[in-house]
Write a structure and sequence with these properties.
Elements lengths: L1 H8 L2 H67 L2 H24 L4 H26 L6 H105 L14 H59 L5 H29 L7 E5 H12 L4 E5 L5 E5 H17 L6 E10 L2 E8 L31 H11 L4 E5 L5 E8 L13
Parallel strand pairs: 2-4
Antiparallel strand pairs: 1-3, 4-5, 5-7, 6-7
Length: 515
């Protein structure tokens, strides 16, 4: 239970960090414990060696005192000066051993007290021996014997002090040896236990890393398989989207999974069904619109022609009987009939934009502009072409309608009977940007958007030529070509219509997606 909670609270990276920190901490503690134990063992070993040195120095000091006494006694018995050499050598070594013992026992106050007494006795002993060597012929036998007795008593006192010092040092040695034995036993145990614990922690950490790696690999495989499955399902959805773009709305995705991709597939299926139903209805409406266009072009235009014919007959037969006022009325009637016919033709042209099959061909825009100008630009106007106009593959009729409306508007709305029309072109990425500019009265900025709306015109609505549809047709054609159009003008400074046209055709035939 606790392990499960640990797995839930900490992620893989955190658990690995914790494991490494624990292992590092255990190794550090092992190193510290081993260092301390080894240091203590070394320290106790040095103190044991120290006690041995004290005992050895005490022993050597006793032997040197005895050697000095033996030299003096030999000299007294034989008068041989060789014994004096032995005495002098031993005497010089006695104080050296004493000084070394004094140095080694600085940490032991009790031993220092014994050494103070011992130093006094040694000095007395050496002084007695010196007296015996210097005054051999001047002393009586009884005096010599008395001095020797004193020497023996002093020596016994020295031996007792040395024995007590050695005994105390031996006790210290036993204590230090016991501590040394303890650390000799503890140190390997500590090192062994710490090393074992570190090995266990390291093995546990290695096992945890292996488990996590295995789990991650398994998860990676599962994610890879899931990604492949999702990628396959997404490719199916992409294929559906491509088919929808091509106008096939009956395509469906067979994905029954209860996940986000499955829900998306279900939504796309509903969308394609809705699109299919909607475009089926649109096709029906388009057929009705085509029928309306047929009716408008035949059933509406025929009566208009009849009325125009009747008006012409009246003028021809009764023209000499008509008053000036009646002729004015007949003129107004003919203007209204002509405007109505133009309005019907404009509506039909606007309805057909984008609904007829394009006929792509390679055309020279400069030749096309000259052909249009010959039809709609009167001789009193000057046509200027500033730049080299391109040659491109496109729908000739659509581009011709755009230039026809723009050039005819430049003439129609000019405030004089003569003027200048300038045409330019530049490349703009994947499109050409054409510019049709005139030197007419211009258009105020507040009307720049309004002029592209249906039935919007800046001229008197009673003027026959002003139906307000021409620029609407231009904008719709350019929108179908994925282009844009804008006007740059101010009142009294002429107008420039700037539109873009694709270098490559946007489509050969009308698809359902474009209806």
């Amino acid at each position: 239970m606790a392990y499960g909670i640990f797995n839930m609270v900490f992620n893989t990276k955190t658990k690995l960090y914790i494991g490494f920190f624990i292992a590092a901490g255990v190794l550090l503690l092992t190193a510290v414990a081993s260092f301390i134990s080894t240091r203590q063992l070394s320290n106790r070993t040095q103190w044991v060696e120290h006690s041995y040195q004290v005992m050895q120095q005490l022993k050597d000091m006793e032997l040197r005192i005895k050697d000095a006494r033996s030299g003096v006694r030999g000299y007294l018995l034989t008068t041989d000066t060789v014994y004096l050499g032995l005495y002098n050598k031993a005497k010089g070594q006695v104080m050296g051993h004493f000084n070394e013992v004094d140095r080694l026992t600085q940490d032991n106050p009790k031993q220092q007290l014994r050494l103070d007494t011992l130093e006094t006795l040694i000095n007395v002993q050496l002084r007695l021996l010196a007296d015996l060597t210097r005054s051999k012929g001047n002393l009586s036998r009884s005096t010599i014997q008395t001095t020797l007795d004193t020497d023996r008593q002093t020596m016994r006192a020295v031996e007792r002090l040395l024995s007590r010092a050695r005994t105390r040092e031996l006790e210290i040695l036993q204590e230090r040896s016991s501590e040394q034995s303890t650390y000799e036993t503890i140190t390997p145990a500590i090192i062994l236990i710490s090393t074992t614990f570190a090995i266990v922690i390291t093995l546990w950490l290695f096992w945890r890393v292996s488990v996590e790696i295995t789990a991650n690999e398994r998860l990676q495989h599962e994610l890879t398989a899931a990604n492949e499955g999702i990628a396959h399902r997404i490719s199916i959805i992409e294929n559906l989207a491509n088919q929808v773009v091509q106008g096939d709305y009956k395509v469906k995705i067979k994905d029954k999974e209860r996940d986000s991709v499955g829900n998306l597939a279900t939504s796309l299926n509903r969308m394609t069904q809705t699109l299919d139903d909607t475009f089926t209805a649109l096709e029906k409406r388009n057929r009705e619109l085509d029928q309306f266009a047929y009716v408008a072009s035949h059933d509406l235009k025929a009566p208009l022609r009849g009325v125009s014919t009747v008006v012409k007959w009246i003028e021809d037969e009764l023209g000499h009987e008509l008053s000036d006022k009646m002729r004015e009325y007949f003129g107004l009637m003919k203007g209204r009939l002509s405007r109505l016919e133009d309005l019907i033709n404009g509506l039909l042209a606007y309805a057909r934009v984008g609904r007829t099959q394009q006929r792509l061909e390679e055309i020279s825009v400069e030749h096309l502009v000259h052909e249009v100008a010959d039809l709609v630009v009167p001789p009193t106007f000057e046509l200027r072409i500033q730049d080299d106009l391109p040659t491109l593959v496109t729908d000739r009729l659509s581009l011709q309608q755009v230039f026809t409306n723009l050039l005819s508007n430049a003439v129609k709305y000019h405030h004089n009977k003569q003027g200048i029309i300038t045409i330019g072109c530049r490349e703009a990425g994947k499109q050409y940007e054409f510019r049709v500019q005139d030197d007419g009265p211009g258009i105020a900025p507040e009307y720049h958007e309004k002029i592209f709306l249906m039935f919007q015109t800046l001229r008197d609505r009673h003027t026959a030529e002003s139906t307000g549809i021409g620029l609407s047709i231009v904008k719709k054609i350019i929108d179908e070509q994925r282009g844009s159009i804008r006007v740059e003008s101010a009142a009294g400074s002429g107008a420039a219509f700037v539109f873009t046209w694709p270098k490559q055709p946007v489509g050969v035939a009308l698809s359902k997606a474009e209806l």
